[in-house]
Structures are given as C-alpha cells and as structure tokens.
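Hello, quick one for you while I still have it in my head. A protein chain has come my way and I'm curious about its shape. Can you walk me through what the tokens say about the fold? No rush at all, and the record is pasted right below.
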Amino acid sequence: MNQNRKITSLEPLSSCVLLCSLTLSGNDIESIDTLSNCIHLTELDLRNNTKLSTLDPLKSCKSLKRLYLTHNQLICSLEPLLECTKLKRLDFSRNNQISSLKGLENCVRIDYFDFSGNTLITSLEPLRKSYHTLMKNLSMFYIGNQKLKQFFRD
C-alpha cells in the first residue's frame, strides 16, 4: 500500500488471517482493530499514521518480529506488546506522547531499538528485570532527544 494518505480503514483486511507482513506507512489510519485477527503477522509498518491512537489489537499478534511506529502521535500505552516476546526490531521514535516503556518487559530479543524523540520517557525502569538479556542482543539502541534522567531508579 502506498504513502498517499488515502487509506483510513483496515476493514477490507478482516479476513486476511494468514497475513505475515503489512506496510501501511503514510496513511490516515485511526484504528488497527482488524489486525487482532492477524495472529501470523511478523512485520508491521505503521509509520506516519498520525491518527493512530491505540495498540490494543496487537495483543493477539504474538508472532510480531518487526514493528515500525515512528512519526505517529501515539498517546497510548505500550502494554499491548507485553506478550510480543519475539520482537527483534522496534522503532517508535518521534512519538512524543509515549511516556513509559512499560509493556516491553518481556521483549528481550530486540536487537534494534529506537525510541529517540519521545521526550516524555524519563526512565528505563520497566526494562530493569530483562536489562542484561536485552543488552546482549542489542546491536542498535537509539535514545537521543530524551528527558531521560536515569536508566533505573535507585
């Protein structure tokens, strides 16, 4: 699908239960509810969909390995990603409304992690328990333009 900002609904994809990869960057998608049926989804690109407001439907997408959410205005929680333990590449940079990494505690396979430009994130505390395992896998870790005060609370 192309970047012409014309796609607003994913309803036509409701029966695509075997879908593995989906690129929807540069559109006006508000809801990804339809994707809750896509349990085989391994790659999802939702870059530049500024109306996107929740990730809740991704709770059932436990096969996700690559998730691109950069340049959205997400004001939601990352908690729907809690069971997405296969995630290897996660880019939610420049979503300046995300305030916590809570929900990423179990995502220890991530090797590319970009949350730069999310100025409300002030701590990596939700990652404390999985920190050592996560750091062994990381090859790219972008945290620029933060108000990050500390990695973990004392």
